[in-house]
Amino acid sequence: MDLYIPVVVLGVLAFGFAAFSVVMGSLTGPKRWNRAKLDAYECGIEPTPQPVGGGRFPVKYYLTAMLFIVFDIEIIFLYPWAVAFDQFRGLFGLIEMALFIVTVLVAYAYVWRRGGLEWD
Amino acid sequence: MNSVSVLAAPEIHAPPVEFSQLAPMLIVFGAAIVGVLAEAFVARPARYAVQFPLALVGLAAAFCWTLWLGFSEKPQHAAADGAVAVDGPTLFIQGTILVLAMLSLLLIAERAQDAFTAQAAALPGSEAEQESMADGGIQTEIFPLTLFAVGGMMLFPAANDLLTMFVGLEVMSLPLYLLCGLARRRRLLSQEAAVKYFLLGAFSSAFFLYGTALLYGYAGSVRLSAISAALSRSGGSETLLLAGVALLSVGLLFKIGAVPFHPWKPDVYQGAPTPITALMASCTVVAAVGAALRVFYVAFETLRWDWRPMMWGVAILTMMVGAIVAITQTDIKRMLAYSSIAHGGFLLTGIVATSESGLSATLFYLAAYGFTTVGAFAIVTMVRDTTGEAGHLGRWAGLGRRSPVIAGIFAFFLLAFAGIPLTSGFTGKFAVFQAAADGGAVPLVIVGVLSSAIAAFFYVRVIVVMFFSEPEPDAPSVVTTATTATAVALGLTATVVLGVLPQPMLDLAGQAATQLFVR
Amino acid sequence: MTPCTGKEGLAFFGCDPWWLILGKGVVIFAFLLLSVLMCVWAERRVIGRMQLRPGPNRAGPFGLLQPLADGIKGALKEDIVPRKVDKFIFFLAPVLAATPALISFAIIPLGPVVSIAGHKTPLQLTDLPVAVLLVLAMSSVGVYGVVLAGWASRSPYALLGGLRSSAQVISYEIAMGLSFVAVFLYAGSLSTSQIVSAQAGGGTASFFGLFTFDTPSWNAIVLFPSFVIYVFTMMGESNRIPFDLPEGEGELVAGYHTEYSSLKFLMFYLAEYINMVTLSALATTLFLGGWRAPAPISTVWPGANSGWWPLLWFLGKLVLFIFFFIWLRGSLPRVRYDQLMKLGWKVLMPVSLGWILLVATLRALRNNGADTSAYLVVAGAVVLALLAGSFVWDAIKGPPPSAADEPEPERPAEPEPAGAFPVPPLDAPHYHGSHHGKEVPSGLH
User: Fold this and answer.
1) Helix, strand, coil % (nearest 5) of chain A?
2) Nearest one of C78, C46, C75, C83 to C62, comparing CA atoms
3) Given CB atoms, is A93 within the 8 Å cutoff of chain B?
4) Do B40 and A93 touch (CB under 8 A)?
5) What is the widest separation between alpha-carbon atoms in chain C?
6) pLDDT tens-digit profile of C80-94?
7) ipTM computed for the complex
8) Mean pLDDT, residues C105-110
9) Do C125 and A48 touch (CB under 8 A)?
10) What is the mean pLDDT of residues C335-341?
């Protein structure tokens, strides 16, 4: 666990700095009240009313997030495999991973062909 | 760990993988993957013509291989480094699942009366939905999804450690959640069913995982045989063990649909497209009971004096609640769902027996019940009016006068559910109750017989409605098509044969059970 | 802390005394803040030069104090918190963006083992068995800052900017993660110090047994495709030109930090530049041999890789990368969002996966005693043959029809549909002041 202590130290330092800055920012600056300033900035036009709770946003982003999870998990499988690669005897490690990658690529081909990767 | 120690690190050798024993599952999964590729690269109009034969051939090939495995007298042991146990009960259950899945597939592939939405992504009631309907397309992803679900169902009862079992559980469940939401009519109800099933299913999966974690804490392994060995050593923390068993049981009983983990069942069975309901009512139940059998027979056998009282309670509750609440149902699918819950209770009595005869009786019961329930749901898809399937029981009034054959077959299925002699239901119940009585669970048997009597009441009520009341002027008509009719005919044949000549199948189940579970 | 004697490898990192850990942490922290100031200054100066203007040159020598002055000015500005924002998350987001950016640098090796006040210690805050995963994890946490900033602002620009940014970063994170795999395959470890030492010396290869030669040791050369993919994803991850869509000012004002001002805005700014520095440092470590001296120097001067000198090589490579970032910003236009996602998902990812399989195959063959150089020659020949084939194919097919050859599409006579908002014709001459008749052709002013 000793290895991780420095990460925590730097993290505390960084968090302290960031939190301090954010709090300081609201204390140091001047305060000049103006109603328009407290509205959302939309280049001077009346702000678009925002639905309570943020409303809905395009389903494309959900799709991207889900694809990200699929491939991120693929990466998580690839890392230990890559690290241990030289310990595999024979072609077993290679073939297994090739099978796995091909299986994921089948899903990838499906998503691609069905327009899951298109943005307009 | 420096570079020197990396070089000295142990070599990793290929684990033994008995591909021939895993082949049925691999064939099903392979067909599913080919199906996904077909979805990607085959033109939309041609997809159905590719997917349906592909799925059917995949299932049939897997079934043939299972038969070959079952009848070749090879010494069977846990395959794939002990992760999957291919033994007698596994092969019996996998074969049953494959046959039932083929029957369900016939219903799923029905094109004359589509049960599935043309475009799942279109909002219900939107213009996009109208367009997709007019287009005449079909969401052909249902075929690969079904195959994935069936593959998971085959792995679930075969898994020899809890993690593989969990993987099987998820592979089985996730496609089913999706399939539930794809009904063509009453789509909001269908989507609601899918969300309910997904949320509750995810919840029960979490229970299963917690149970696995606690048992790992107790035994230091997730392998079923290792847990059993740790039990006989009887060291370790009793609390971890009992909590683990309880949580694991919740996960398994949820999939069986045992009371008090049953409330999803009526809603999901009603909302899902009827072919999918047939798949869930037959194959999922078989898979879930198979997995429960393995867990309780292999891992917790020495602990049976601890879990038996709990199982007694659950079985009694399940049988009684299923039978009593079914009486009040007015929707045919909901009624069949409650009947399925009650049957889950009968199956649990077979698990409680924890004996070889209990095992073989449960296996037989699963096969018999599966055929009957697929046939019953097939008939539900056939009785239609202008709004689709005529779900309300009142709409079935007088069906026996308008279509005596179909009504007669349905009545026969209902009698099989009730357990009337000369149907498969009677043989199954008799076998299970006998095994339970031999195992000392006489009160359980009495409750079972009582609840069968209650259940018979509402089955007979449906028959009365069908045959002894006047049809409404706009009563639903019966639409007969080749695929559905085949499914009904096969279901009927199995129900009759297993009722009149049950011995070959009983022998088969008994033979599968004598091998017991490998460890 | 445990004594360090007799420990080597990763275990060596866990045995610094507490004051050394704290000291190193503070130094790295200060180094990062300083590097941000320097980056901002360098960026403005370099881009100024590229655009034929001097850039900031008033505050301090060569305008060196300009970023500091900007920072102080930023801190003294009014801190506007719009009325509708989700206050807690609005305050949390800049912290969440800045903190992980700073943490990532903990595992970057700056040099070999040196002696500080009598303690032998590596010039690296710490190293983990999963060091590179820490960087990936921190960049993922940083996305929370961005997306929460957009979410909490309750403004359409901010929300869209946050969504776009997070979608972009996670898309490129996949390609980035895949580009690392080949490096891990070669190093057999995820720890940065071991990846650096794995690049210490190349092996030898023989050409069909005719003659042998030394293979280069830097991953940037050995695993060139991985390096190229990493450089692409580096641009995407850092949200900078040509991939700075989230803050495309033409469409989204400032993207997710539209509603932020004062020090809160500076936190996002800081995070962006620290990410740039960290990504450059990671590129140096994984692909350019880390703190090791470049090839000719280490051959002629054996002491180049010991003591404090490596810090120089490391900083040199780091500055090179940062200059590359700035150079790109000075020369490239912004891509469209669909092009950006297309590059990430349809090009970088399949290419990475194919490359990983290729590398793994060669490595597996070599591990099993096959002579891979022969395969390499064959593969090279195949690639050359394919290229030649495509060249011949193009020559036979003739040049593709260029845009100039196509007839100009007929302009519709009625440009605006009935009932639309009236828009002046876009190619109308512009009038200035009251001088009627003085026309300035459109687009020339």
Assistant:
1) 70, 0, 30
2) C46
3) yes
4) no
5) 89
6) 888 878 888 888 898
7) 0.87
8) 88
9) no
10) 84
The minimal CB distance from A110 to the residues B9, B11, B36 is found for B36
Q: Cα separation of A116 and C181, whole Å?
A: 25
Q: How far apart are CA B19 and CA B84, in angstroms?
A: 11
Chains interfacing with B (3 or more CB pairs < 8 Å): A, C
Most confident of B107-116, B299-308, B327-336, B388-397: B327-336
CA angle B394, B400, B405 (to 5 degrees): 135
With contact defined as beta carbons under 8 Å apart, do B442 and B433 qualify? no
Q: Identity (one letter) of the amino acid at B64?
A: C
- B185-to-A85, B115, B181, C388 alpha-carbon distances in Å: 52, 8, 11, 58
How many Å is the maximal CA-CA distance in chain A? 73
Partner-chain contact A106 B33, CB within 8 Å: yes
pLDDT at position B314 is 93
Q: Do A86 and B6 touch (CB under 8 A)?
A: yes
> How far is the CA of A66 from the CAs of A119, B119, B450, C159, C166, in angstroms?
16, 20, 50, 19, 13
Q: Which residues of A touch C25 (CB under 8 A)?
A: 6, 9-10, 13
Confidence tier at C371 by pLDDT (50, 70, 90): low
CA gap A77, B495 in Å, rounded: 47
Determine contact, residues B344/B286, Cβ cutoff 8 Å. no
A46: left (phi over 0), alpha (psi -120 to 50) or beta: beta
- The candidate with the shortest Cα–Cα distance to B389, out of B332, B327, B337, B349, is B332
B416: tokens are: 């099989």
Residues 6+ apart with CB under 8 A from B510: B360
Give me the DSSP letters along B347-360. Answer: HHHHHHH-SHHHHH
Mean pLDDT is highest, among A104-113, B133-142, C384-393, for A104-113
In the chain, the amino acid numbered A33 is W
> Three-state DSSP class for B383?
strand
Q: What angle do CA B450, B452, B453 make, to 5 degrees?
A: 65
User: For residue C214, what pLDDT is reported?
Assistant: 61
What pLDDT band is residue C163 in, cutting at 50, 70 and 90? confident
H-run or E-run covering C353? helix C349-367
User: Which residue among B6, B7, B39 places its CB closest to the CB of A110?
Assistant: B39
The DSSP secondary structure of B134-185, one letter per residue, reads HHT---TTHHHHHHHHHHHHHHHHHBSBHHHHHHHHHHHHHHHHHHHTTBSS
Q: Does B3 touch chain C (CB under 8 A)?
A: yes
Beta bridge partners of C444: none
Which amino acid does the sequence have at C365? L
Q: What are phi and psi of C169, to 5 degrees?
A: -65, -40
Q: DSSP secondary structure string, C67-125?
A: HHHHHHHHHTS-----TTS-HHHHHHHHHHHHHHHHHHGGG---EEEEEETTEEEEESS
Buried b (16+ CB within 10 A) or exposed e, B475-498: bbeeeeeebbeebbebbbebbbeb
- For residue A42, the SS3 value is coil
Average pLDDT, chain A: 83
User: Span B219-247, mean pLDDT?
Assistant: 87
Which of B14, B33, B41 has the CB atom closest to A113's CB atom? Answer: B41
Task: Please state, in angstroms and rounded to a whole number, the distance separating the CA atoms of residues B5 and B11.
Answer: 12
A117 to chain C: which residues are within 8 Å by CB?
Answer: 341-342, 345-346
Which is nearest to B31 in space by CA: B66, B67, B61?
B61
Lowest-confidence range among B29-38, B415-424, C232-241, C244-253? C244-253
Q: Looking at chain C, which residue has its C-alpha nearest residue B9? A: C188
